[in-house]
Structure formats: structure tokens, C-alpha cells
Amino acid sequence: MARLGIDKDFLHEFTKLEKPVQERVTRALTKFGHVSHAGAHLEKIADARDPRFRSIRISDFWRGIVLAPDSGDSYTLLTVRPHDDAYAWARRHRASVNAATGRVEIRDVAAVEDSMPALSRMAETAPTRLFDHVKDSQLRRLGIDEQTLRFARVLTDSTQLDAAKSFLPSNQWDVLFGLAAGYTPEQVWAELAAEVTEEEFDTEDLDAAVERSSDRVVLVDGPEELMAIFRHPLATWRVYLHPRQRSVVEASYGGPARVTGGPGTGKTVVTMHRAHQLATEGEGTVLMTTFTATLSESLRTGVQLLVEDPGVRERIDVRHVDQLANRIFREHHGPPTILPPEKERQLWDSVVAELEVPFTAAFLGEEWRQVVLARRIGSAEEYLNAKRDGRGRALGSRQKARVWQAIWEFENTLRRRGVWTYETVCVEATRLLEQRTEKPYRHVVVDEAQDLSPVQWRLLRAAVPEQPNDIFLAGDTHQRIYNNRVSLRDVGIRVVGRSSRLTVNYRTTAEILAWSLGLLRGERIDDMEEGLASIAGCRSEVRGRHPRLLGFPTKNAETEHLVTTVREWMDAGVQPGEIGVAVRSHRLVDTVMAALSAAGVPHEKLLGATDGTEQAVAVGTMHRMKGLEFRCLAVVGVTEHHVPPASAITPEEEDPAAHRRDTQRERCLLFVACTRAREQLVVSWHGARSPFLPAEE
Ligand SMILES: Nc1ncnc2c1ncn2[C@@H]1O[C@H](COP(=O)(O)OP(=O)(O)OP(=O)(O)O)[C@@H](O)[C@H]1O
User: Fold this and answer.
1) pTM here?
2) pLDDT reading at 237 higher than 60
3) What is the CATH number of domain 241-330+426-519?
4) The ligand 1 atom nearest the CA atom of 237
């Protein structure tokens, strides 16, 4: 029976085809998958560059190009194009097997040949060449074949290599990119070797190479699987993991492990696959968790898509961390009466007034969370001796005694009234779990780890016994958007020696990523292990438009322009659901919604997770944007005094450390918003621009 494979690049192309063409493709391939003599549907192409290319009829006007190896029975769809274009593609491209990885690769041979004469001429007069420092034998060992070798030898600078990204085989381009970026051949080999076995590959056996190429070809078992892939083509992660991601997913760890990486590097994808893997191993229930309801909702959708076996799916419990605390609490005490945040603030105010302590309610609330709860302090003595890292304002012992008095009064009032805050529910649930010998979970997998608070980490630690593969966490401290900071070590989670970093961004173009990274330049950001985190090396290999920065005299002019931009995107074929508008305040959400309404543009307020299938432009606060992505994104109202808003920043004179921390958090929030854009980003303001934006260029 024939096996159909779909090349990853085609899935990206598929999303951009018009609906009727997509339907034709699905129909043609479903028919193809049904017959036992699949070859019967394929036609030889007389002048194809690669004799193993065949064409498949999609409609009168459209053709697909399929790779049909000489032996074996697997067929891989490489591209679908208008008739003439498809044949032209087949005349330019060739498939081969990479000697180092044993995987299939496709290259535009004609483009390599066309660019050689000019590059050779330039190289003749250049004093040095890009790869002078690397021997031929080293390049060959890294999988560079003869044609790419000749090409690499005439390169004189890295912009020429950048331009070759679109036509060289991608694995080989990656190797050259690494070497040009200053990595030694050994370092590049170490990256490759982590992904492949030390096996001799038969570079003629394309069929075996297709089987090995799970990073670029998905082999489809039957029409239903094919339909599922085409229904969610953007969920390419469902079927593909980069080998580096796969090694993180499949590793066995002696204890807690974590993966870090900049935005869009696939951390969420990795956590879902990790949960799937652990649930498949079947040692017990996997808790998959994060810090908000919206995010856990999108994890749940992802898990449903990814995990087909209902038995395995049942072993993955997706819930956000406060939900877990609430569940454990209820099991023992029934539902808690929660004191809402504004009431909590009033309670602090009344404590301040009653005891006449010289501190603000905000200061006391933060001291309680970040010192008392975070360090599990239960007595005045413990508080007097406690480290107060990260708390700006120094306190003498008499001041500490007064703070403690206020905190004691606050906690005592909660007890007396029988009310709880989210934090105290979490603390109580942790106490209950610590008493249990039977823990509710065998594994815990955490996404967006940077935003969990110390009390939440303690809860998770208590929910799973300490053993191999107990906790797996993914996060990026550059994307922290709440005030929670933690030292993992302090909460009993040691990941030393079990940390991996992902560096390739799959979401955003290189232009958008580079510009967004510039927003954080110079910031010192912790790594949750008492050191500093680095985002160096985070890169995207997809090129696109530069972000557009636009200032307007008035808010009206800015929103009018936003409407025009959204219309232009839609006219260019972008679906409304693929467009997002991010703003800092709820009030601006309403303004933008009103402007889109008046213009008749379909839109909706972002309340929960979205997978881009809604037929409406998503408008939401920057906080709501976490974990999402949009093909085109406008970040609006990035105006002085609005980003950051004065209300979100502790005045410097009141507490310089808190001021720095708040400012950094707001900067990170803008960074998170901007890195949600996949292809196009527009950042605008009215009046003076936000101090976070680079000054006029
Ligand atoms: N190996 C891969 N090949 C192709 N696309 C990938 C791969 N891994 C991830 N992606 C895609 O990249 C995008 C970003 O992935 P994901 O959301 O997991 O990143 P992240 O690191 O969690 O991002 P962030 O921290 O910004 O929320 C998604 O569209 C995902 O489908």
C-alpha cells in the first residue's frame, strides 16, 4: 500500500492557498491515498531536474509535484502550484540525502548554478573568503556535499550566505550558518551529533531517507489523518519537531528539568509533546499546567489535537495552578470563600489605619507575598532574620517589627472571617499535599514557568513525588509579565545540569525578532537560578518586512490608520482571524473595537485562547496576548505615559528597586506583545512615543 508523505514547506504554502484550491488538494490526495497503485495517478515529467519527480493533477489549472523514490512505496508531496509554475519548479529543484544526517533535502539547483559565476568573480579579487578557516574534510563530515562545497568556497561574506537560504538544502545551510557565526566545526558537529546516530547513510536510498526525515516529512496513515492535518495546517508542530526539540522531549531526566528559549522557539510545543510522551509511557497521571485560565485552555486544545489515543489523553490533566490549589482545598474543606483583590486592598488599608504603621497597603501586600509567603515565614523571629532579596526598601529591625505586626493582623483577620486569598488557598493546599504520602500526580509539566509565584511552585513540588522525570518546565524570563520571581532552588526544584535552550524562532521573521529584541537591550534579567538569563543566539531564519513604526498627532488619527491597515491586510488575503491588535489598557481595547465596528470590520475582544480560526480580528490587552500568535499584528497606543502607564510603576523616590522591577516588567510586556507577530508588525502611538521605543532613526 502506498504511503503518502507531505513536505513541511508545503504545509506552510497550503495555508496561503485560496480555500477552493485547498479543497481540491485535499480531494486529490485523499483519492491518491485510497488506491493501492498510487503511481497510476502520477505522471512522469520529461525535463525534470530530478528523474524521481512526478506530477499529480489537482485541477485543470493546478499541479502538485511529488517525490517518488525508485524503490519503496512512499510518495512525498513537495509543492502545489499553477500548472506552468509547477513544471518550472520541477526543472529547477532536486532531492538528495544528507550524508551526515541521512535525511532528505531539497535544493533549487538552478539558483545555485545561476549565482555561481558572479560570486566566483567577486571571490577572485576578495582578500579572504567566508570559510577559509574550515577544511573541505570538515565540511564534508558535516554533511556538505560537492555542489554546496563549491558554492561555499566562493562566498566572501555572510550576506551572500543569507541570500542563499532560499535555495540551499536547509540542513547544509544551517551548518554553514553556524560556521559563519563563529562556531567551530566541533561545536557544529556537537549540535548535529545530538540529533543523529553515528551511522553510515546510503545517500542513494531516498526511500529510507524519507522514513528518517520526521523533521521535514510527515508520513500520513490514511485519508483521515490527511484531513486532520489539512484542517489544522498551522499546527505543523503536531507532526514535526526539530531534532533538538525532540531530544528535549524524549530525554529521561534524573529529576526536575527545564527548557528555556526566546519567544517562538517552540517551548509550548515541547511541553505538549513532553506531556504526551510521559503519558504514553504510562507510569501515572501527568499534570500539565500554567499560570492562567486562558493559557491552560489553549494547552488543553493543543493536547486534544496532539494526543489521539483516548487512554493516553485521559492520563493528562490540564488545569491552571490556581485550579489545582482550589481542587485540593475543596477536597478537604469544601469551597473557599475568596476575598477579591480589591477587598484585600481595603483590608490592608484598614490594617494600616488601625495600627498607624508608616507603610502603604501596596508595600505591605508585596512584602507579604514576596517575603512572608514566598519564604514560608510563620513567626516574628523568622521574619526578623529573613533575606529580603529583590525588595528595594531596606528595613531596620524596629521597622520590621512593625511590618510584621501589620502582616500578623492581616492574616489573623482572614482567619477570623474565614476568608481566603488565592495565595492562602495555595499555601493551604500545599500543606495538605505535603501531608499525603500518595501524591496526585506522577509527572508535572509547566509552561510559561517564569510567571509562577513561589507559593505556586511549592504547590507543584508537593503534588508530585521526588523521582526521575518528576517536573519539566518551560519558560523565558524575558517574557515575565507579572511580578512573580522565584529561585527554583529555594522552592526545592533543582534543575542544574538538566537545562536545555532552544534558539531557533519558528514564529517571527528575523526582522521582527531583531527589532523586538532591541526593546530589551541592556536589561539584566534573572534566570530563576540566581544568575542572569541570556537570550543571545535566538534567531529566526525566515526573512520578511521590517516592522513599521508610526506616530500620529491624535488618537483618532491613529485608530483611523489602524482601520486602514487592517483593511489592507484583509484585501491582501489575510483572514480576519489571523490579525491581532494589542493595546495596554482595557479602555483602549474599547476604543479600537468601536473604530473597527464603525468601519464594519469583523472583530472580537480577546477573552480566551484563539487558534486563528475565528473569522474576526482579535483585539486584546497585551497581557491577553501571551502564548498567542497572529500573521499580522498591530500594537497600538504605544504612547508616552500609556506604555508604561504611571499607575503600574512604583515611583522611583518611593522604592527605586520596585521602580526598576516594574519598568522592566512593562518593557517585557511590550516585548511579549510585539513577538506575537508572525509576518507583519505595526507599532503606533499618538503624541509622544513611549520611552521604550527607540528614538527616531
Ligand atoms: N519544529 C518546528 N517546526 C515548525 N514550526 C514550529 C516548530 N516548533 C514550533 N513551531 C511553531 O512555532 C510557533 C511558536 O511555537 P511555541 O508557541 O511553542 O513557542 P514558544 O517558545 O512557547 O513561544 P512564546 O514563548 O513566545 O510563547 C508555533 O506556531 C509553532 O507551531
Assistant:
1) 0.75
2) no
3) 3.40.50.300
4) 31
